Amino acid sequence: MVKESNESELLKGTLDMLILKCLVAGPRHGYGVAKWIQSTTGGKLTIEEGSLYPALHRMLKHGWLSAEWGLSESNRKAKYYKLTRTGRAQLKQKVGSWESMVIAIGTVLNANVSKVAP
Amino acid sequence: MNLEYLLKGLKRYLSSPWTSAEDVSNEEVRQELGFHLMSSAEDLHESGMSIEDAQSEAYHKFGDLKKVLRECGEIGSSGQQLWHRVHLFITAGLVVCVATLFTAQLQTNLAPPEKRLSMATGFSFEETHGDVFGNVSDPAGEAISNANVIAVVKTWPEGGYRQQSYMTTTGVDGSFRIDNVYSPDHNYEVQVSVVAEGRLLTSRYIEMASGILDRFAFKLRPTNLFEIRFEDEKGEPLEHVAAFPSARTDQAGNRHQVYFMGSAPIVLQSDERGTIPITQFTQGERVEITVRFPNEEDWQVRNFIVPDDNRVVVMNPTAL
């Protein structure tokens, strides 16, 4: 799903969080989500673009997103995804879990390595 | 699964029953992915790539298109699959019900006529040959014709209970007959009530009997007419109140009654003055009428003592 960049590695289960975050600012189509992730991370994070769609459809089924067909900037028919109230709550929960995990990992990485008495 | 998603799945399922769920869902996904690839190729072309290279790079960046189509199709059709399964389950259930009913009916139809069961008694028609019969007259023995005779018969077929009402009127000679209403070989109970114009409501109850019933002989005493007037809270007459005489207790303490089941033929309605003439009771007796006021669904029982001086009895919806 994710191409490893030189500077980062995406943990499993975070794609949903990125998509939800992307849609906070307003509805986007799938290509727009891919471009937003690419530009926001300055190219440090690249995602196999196709992998967005199963994630979008899955979140749509869960009720975290709603979808509507509309016209794009180029006047073509496109499917726009929008964050629902449930989706906002999910984003908040996922961000909280992510932050807790980052703190925990950071604690481990910063710990002094010493011999442990038997 | 989200309710809105489920309902959309149902709508799609109902609007395209001849198309597979996967086809309907995949067509939309193809449109969506097609937009993505086209937009990606355009952007790459604008950045300086040739059209062919831009298209190739767009597909490369996208990844395994078939896999994405398949995954999205599976996600999209799962809601419709649920409705498809529900539909199949209901259809299978209906087929089983129809088959069961058909088999039961076939068995009934194939049985010899005399062995088929009477719905009224629960016993076979062959067994249900007991009649309720008799005559109605005045105390002097003069026949009373056109009297309403209501019979309620209770039977206990194996593992069950049946109660059925029958109604007839007396002939010119005052006789009545209701055929084939109980099985003499099994226990039964019978209530026979007679409601005649200007005659006391009279009934007789036969408890737990078997064998052939004796002839009923009713001698009905004459009554005095009195009226019931129905009024609302403001004293205005109430038209279209439905009522019927349902019970009386005679001076010997015997209760005579009409079962609610079977009372339809003797129900009266109040006129524009709000009155109903009652001719089946006599002065001084404690009686019951069963009443239903306009715009109400339920019937209610009202007790009173018939006044001695033929006064009108007034009733309104709120009084008890």
Helix content of chain A: 40-55%
User: How does the overall form of chain A come out from the CA principal axes?
Assistant: elongated
Average pLDDT figure of chain B: 86
Question: What's the total count of β strands of chain B?
Answer: 15
Strand order of the largest sheet of chain A: 2-5-4
* Uncertain segments of chain B: none
Alpha-beta content class of chain A: alpha+beta
Secondary-structure element pattern of chain B, one letter each: HHHHEEEEEEEEEEEEEEE
Succession of helices and strands of chain A: EHEHEHEEH
| Structural classification of chain B | alpha+beta
Helix content of chain B: 25-40%
- Computed CA radius of gyration of chain A, to the nearest angstrom: 18 Å
Describe this structure in words.
The complex is a heterodimer of chains A (118) and B (320). Helices cover 47% and strands 17% of the residues of chain A. Chain A is an alpha+beta fold and 118 residues long. Chain A has a three-stranded antiparallel β-sheet. The radius of gyration of chain A is 18 Å and the shape is elongated. Chain A starts with a strand and ends in an 8-residue tail after the last helix. The relative contact order of chain A is 0.17. Chain B has 320 residues and is α+β, with helices and mostly antiparallel strands. In chain B, 30% of the residues lie in helices and 28% in strands. Chain B has four helices and 15 strands. Chain B has helices at residues 3-15, 21-46, 51-62, 65-110; strands at residues 130-137, 148-155, 162-169, 175-182, 188-195, 202-209, 216-219, 226-230, 242-249, 255-257, 268-269, 275-278, 286-292, 300-305, 313-315. In chain B, the strands form four sheets. In chain B, strands 9, 10, 11, 13 and 14 form a five-stranded antiparallel β-sheet that branches. In chain B, strands 3-2-5-6 form a four-stranded antiparallel β-sheet, with no helix packed on it. In chain B, strands 4-1-7 form a three-stranded mixed β-sheet, with no helix packed on it. In chain B, β13 (286-292) and β14 (300-305) form a beta hairpin. In chain B, α1 packs across α4 and α2 (21-46) crosses α3 (51-62). The longest helix of chain B is centred in the first third of the chain and has 46 residues, at 65-110. The radius of gyration of chain B is 37 Å and the shape is elongated. The model of chain B has no long low-confidence stretch (mean pLDDT 86). Chain A binds chain B through residues 29-31, 34-35, 48-51, 53-54, 57-58, 60-63, 66, 72, 74, 76-79, and chain B through 1-5, 28-29, 31-33, 35-36, 38-40, 42-43, 61-65, 67-68, 71-72, 75-76, 78-79.
